[in-house]
From TrEMBL:
Binding site for ATP: 135
Chain intervals with Polar residues compositional bias: 486-497
Lineage of the organism: Eukaryota, Discoba, Euglenozoa, Kinetoplastea, Metakinetoplastina
GO molecular-function terms, A-Z: ATP binding; protein serine/threonine kinase activity
Similarity comment: Belongs to the protein kinase superfamily. AGC Ser/Thr protein kinase family. RAC subfamily.
Annotated region described as Disordered, given as residue ranges: 439-528
Name under which the protein is recorded: Putative rac serine-threonine kinase
Domain Protein kinase: start-end pairs: 106-360
Residues in coiled coil: none
Domain PH: 1-93
Ranges of Low complexity composition bias in the record: 439-461, 470-485
This protein's UniProt keywords: ATP-binding, Kinase, Nucleotide-binding, Phosphoprotein, Serine/threonine-protein kinase, Transferase
Gene3D superfamilies for this protein: Phosphorylase Kinase, domain 1 (3.30.200.20), Pleckstrin-homology domain (PH domain)/Phosphotyrosine-binding domain (PTB) (2.30.29.30), Transferase(Phosphotransferase) domain 1 (1.10.510.10)
Length: 528
């Protein structure tokens, strides 16, 4: 069989090629004349033991040869797609057609959380019995709100693999909903643990700071900045290891300090973000310093009920440590001071520098990465006990199918079993093209992250707009974002504290009102 097909390129765009399936191979050229002229094909796929997959996008499928990268193809109609797949199977009877992942492949066990755009469930995959966290989001609501963060999350998560970062297994669409299937991190949030047990022992705080630092260093090595590090987004797995979740505000392709979108969480905003100047990887290390303060001292050094006053303190005040019954060592205080240097150029901002600090003289980071250093915290063995009972006790109801034609958002489907990853398609590819064009047309190379976000602010104002309250809010995207893990952030009906305006649609375990972190009876609500 032969004819023209669209082929997904490495940059996420569809390119038209002339393809031929013959015997045990599939080849394609830029145009039919190239084949006739004897030009070498752009690519040749060995169909022996190849796996074919329907991707879940209209008229689209993939071919994964044995021990080779996956190629993605798109026909002009479903009928043509079926003809190509039949031809591929005809010319190689050993080729298998793997079914695409569907909602019916999973059994919903209990609700972990819910928000404005859907729910998060603990689920079990029926064929393997393995447990996951599944985020279920309304495509219609996200389209109406022009929310693009699920695409950003998917594109970043599918490309990374680290022992202390939540892992994406599948994403797909069905009956007007977007689904993300991720690791079930059943141990609960670091935020919850801090609320119940802080101040934590110094060694415990250092241990989890080290695990998070290795995750940040990994992301930065891949030119990704996280931009929303806080205890709510650090979740324990069942063994007690800390994992980063919720990549709704993360930004990829950052090679230098050139991102300009004002986003993050008020208490955790770095000085350069408040000044409106371009920022880079140093913002994540600032947030790590603050998180160490929360863990070890149960205090944020610059916190104030008044958001504008808090921003002033972030910009002008030095770090002061409260006295504890058990004194904290000087090396640990020095590490925090270096992470909280107001000048991003002087601030500690590399993993190697972090690892070499005297604070970690006795820690083997190689063993830590191998998860061979025992965690200091052991979560409850029953994941349901680590989440709010108002959600885990909620009955599982059938997903409500939209009354109108289901909305389909191109480019969302992902299946880790294919071993290769789909790239941005449709609208997302167009967005990427706009971003590339914008970068070429600007001398400063500024970020265009605001194209993906609502409520974001650019500029050079010393005091950008604030939320007007002391809730811990992630600024820069849609409201009620969710953690991308088992410890999904839940929104309680009774408490709304630390509401995320960050990524996708669902937010964190509801908690009682959080006690003051900065003396004097001040309260901050917990929850999102």
């Amino acid at each position: 069989m032969s004819g023209y097909l669209k082929v997904l390129s490495r940059d996420g765009t569809w390119e038209t090629h002339y393809a031929v399936v013959d015997d045990t191979k599939m080849q394609y050229w830029e145009k039919k004349e190239d084949k006739t002229a004897g030009v070498a094909p752009v690519k040749e796929l060995d169909l022996q033991c190849a796996t074919l997959r329907e991707i879940g996008e209209p008229c689209t499928w993939s071919v994964q040869p044995d021990k080779a990268s996956t190629s993605y193809f798109q026909a002009e109609s479903e009928q043509k797609k079926d003809e190509w797949i039949n031809a591929l199977r005809h010319y190689n009877s050993s080729a298998t057609l793997a079914p695409k992942v569907r909602l019916n492949d999973f059994e919903k066990i209990f609700v972990l959380g819910k928000g404005s755009y859907g729910k998060v469930y603990m689920v079990r995959k029926k064929d393997t019995g393995k447990a996951y966290a599944m985020k279920e989001m309304s495509a219609e609501k996200m389209k109406q709100a022009e929310i693009k963060t699920p695409f950003k999350e998917r594109l970043i998560l599918q490309e990374i693999d680290h022992p202390f970062i939540v892992h994406l297994h599948y994403s797909f669409q069905e009956d007007g909903y977007l689904y993300m299937v991720l690791d079930l991190l059943g141990g609960g949030e670091l935020f919850t643990y801090i609320e119940n047990h802080a101040p934590l022992p110094e060694e415990t705080g250092k241990y989890y700071a080290a695990e998070v630092a290795t995750a940040l260093g990994y992301l930065h090595s891949r030119n990704i900045i996280y931009r929303d590090l806080k205890p709510e987004n650090v979740v324990f797995d069942q063994a007690g290891h800390a994992c980063l979740t919720d990549f709704g505000l993360a930004k990829s392709n950052v090679h230098e300090a050139n991102a300009v979108t004002y986003c993050g969480t008020n208490e955790y905003l770095a000085p350069e973000l408040l000044k409106g100047v371009p920022h880079g990887k140093a913002v994540d290390w600032w947030s790590l310093g603050l998180m160490m303060c929360e863990m070890i001292f149960n205090e944020l050094p610059f916190y104030d009920d008044n958001p504008v006053q808090m921003q002033t303190r972030i910009l002008t005040e030095e770090v002061h440590f409260p006295k504890l019954k058990t004194p904290v060592s000087e090396p640990t205080k020095d590490l925090i001071r270096r992470l909280l240097d107001k000048d991003p150029n002087r601030r500690m901002q590399t993993l190697e520098e972090f690892k070499q600090h005297p604070c970690f003289a006795g820690l083997d980071f190689d063993l830590l990465l191998q998860r061979k250093v025992p965690p200091p915290i052991t979560p409850d063995s029953d994941p349901a006990r680590n989440f709010a009972p108002e959600f885990t006790g909620e009955p599982i109801l059938p997903t409500q199918t939209p009354s109108q034609a289901a909305v389909t958002l191109a480019g969302y489907t992902y299946d880790e079993d294919s071993k290769e990853y789909e790239q941005a398609q449709g609208a997302l590819a167009k967005e990427a093209a706009k971003t590339a064009a914008a970068k070429k047309s600007t001398s400063g190379g500024g970020s265009s992250s605001s194209n993906f976000m609502s409520n974001s602010t650019k500029g050079s104002s010393m005091h950008p707009p604030v939320t007007g309250n002391s809730k811990r809010s992630s600024l820069g995207s849609a409201s009620n974002s969710s953690s991308t893990s088992g410890a999904v952030k839940q929104t309680s009906a009774s408490t709304q504290g630390r509401k995320s305006e960050g990524a996708s649609a669902l937010k964190a375990p509801s908690l009682a009102v959080r006690k003051s972190l900065v003396g004097g009876g001040t309260t901050r609500n917990s929850g999102t």
